[in-house]
């Protein structure tokens, strides 16, 4: 019987866990890290978007020059539709340039 009591006493021993204070401290540290990381991610997203727009303007400009050279037309006559129809811009580039209202002539003037 004593043996059974000792066995039950060992298995029913209280186990140590985290206190409420320890949990609050951990959550506060995580919240602090989130406050540091999230604004940085927003800045990175904005920078990436600006670089992507600048790269698209450069692509439209380069493709407009190629189209003008290939067809013998002046660059002022080049449109996004002509670049798309001539396969100088793919559908994704065309739709992004249309949405951003990038024009071949504007991007040409801006890069010089």
Automatic annotation (TrEMBL):
InterPro entries: ComGC, N_methyl_site, Pilin-like
TM stretches of this protein: 20-41
Membrane topology, record value: Single-pass membrane protein
Keyword set includes Nucleotide-binding: no
UniProt KW keywords: Cell membrane, Competence, Membrane, Methylation, Transmembrane, Transmembrane helix
GO cellular component, as recorded: cell surface; plasma membrane
Record localization: Cell membrane; Cell surface
Source organism superkingdom: Bacteria
GO BP field: establishment of competence for transformation
Primary localization class, coarse: membrane
Similarity comment: family membership: Belongs to the ComGC family.
NCBIfam families: IV_pilin_GFxxxE, pilin_ComGC
Protein name: Prepilin-type N-terminal cleavage/methylation domain-containing protein
Source organism of the structure: Lactiplantibacillus garii
């Amino acid at each position: 019987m004593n043996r059974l009591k000792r066995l039950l006493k060992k298995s029913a021993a209280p186990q140590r866990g985290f206190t409420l204070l320890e949990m609050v401290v951990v959550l506060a540290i995580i919240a602090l890290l989130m406050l540091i990381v999230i604004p940085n991610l927003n800045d990175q997203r904005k920078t990436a978007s600006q670089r992507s727009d600048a790269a698209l303007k450069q692509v439209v400009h380069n493709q407009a020059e190629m189209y003008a050279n290939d067809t013998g037309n002046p660059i002022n006559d080049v449109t996004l539709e002509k670049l798309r129809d001539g396969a100088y811009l793919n559908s994704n580039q065309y739709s992004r340039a249309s949405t951003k209202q990038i024009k071949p002539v504007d991007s040409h003037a801006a890069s010089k």
